[in-house]
Design goal:
This protein has 174 residues and is mainly α. Helix content is 74%, strand content 0%. It contains six helices and no strands. Helix 1 packs parallel to helix 3, helix 1 packs antiparallel against helix 6 and helix 2 packs across helix 6. The longest helix is centred in the last third of the chain and has 34 residues.
Length: 174
């Protein structure tokens, strides 16, 4: 229960930071996608169906406040939450290197898919969409993951239910 509340609160904070802070963090035309970073890391750490629901609604919120077609971010964030949680389950995320490799691959995938949608909806070249938007934004997302990963890991670890020592009524004697 506490993890679900923290999951939603974290998503709300990520959406607010994306709206308020991220436009001020633009470097050479690349802006980090803080909601994508949060969704990917939360999906990697928790691996629950509630993360998929949170990813959809966080993406829908970004679609409603952004300028793109409604549903693009919702679909991409839900896809990334699914892929990240499955990759973390398959490859494991016990080390920082494994966690970052999973995150980087998923962030790059989302940015390339978004660039593909951008190419189809706006008159822009493939090189411009991939070279000036997708790759720099994916690198920026990876850099932000270095900041968000330890914070989110600590946040969810603190909210995890502690395991109580077995009592005499729960231990069977042979």
């Amino acid at each position: 229960m506490r993890e679900s509340v923290l999951l939603v609160v974290g998503a709300v904070v990520a959406v607010v930071l994306q709206i308020v802070l991220a436009p001020n963090l633009v470097i050479l035309g690349a802006m980090p996608d803080l909601v994508l970073v949060y969704v990917g890391i939360a999906a990697m750490l928790l691996r629950r169906d509630s993360v998929l629901v949170m990813a959809f609604f966080a993406g829908l919120a970004m679609d409603l406040v952004g300028t793109s077609t409604v549903g693009v971010c919702a679909g991409l964030y839900t896809l990334i939450a699914f892929l990240t949680s499955r990759a973390a389950g398959f490859f494991g995320n016990d080390t920082l290197g494994a966690s970052l490799a999973i995150s980087m691959g998923c962030f790059l995938l989302v940015e390339v898919l978004y660039a593909g949608f951008y190419i189809l909806s706006v008159d822009v070249s493939v090189i411009e969409a991939l070279g000036q938007r997708a790759l720099p934004c994916a690198l920026y997302d990876c850099a932000m993951a270095l900041i968000v990963l330890p914070i989110t890991t600590h946040m969810f670890a603190a909210a995890a239910p502690s395991h109580k020592a077995p009592t005499s009524s729960t231990v069977r004697l042979r």
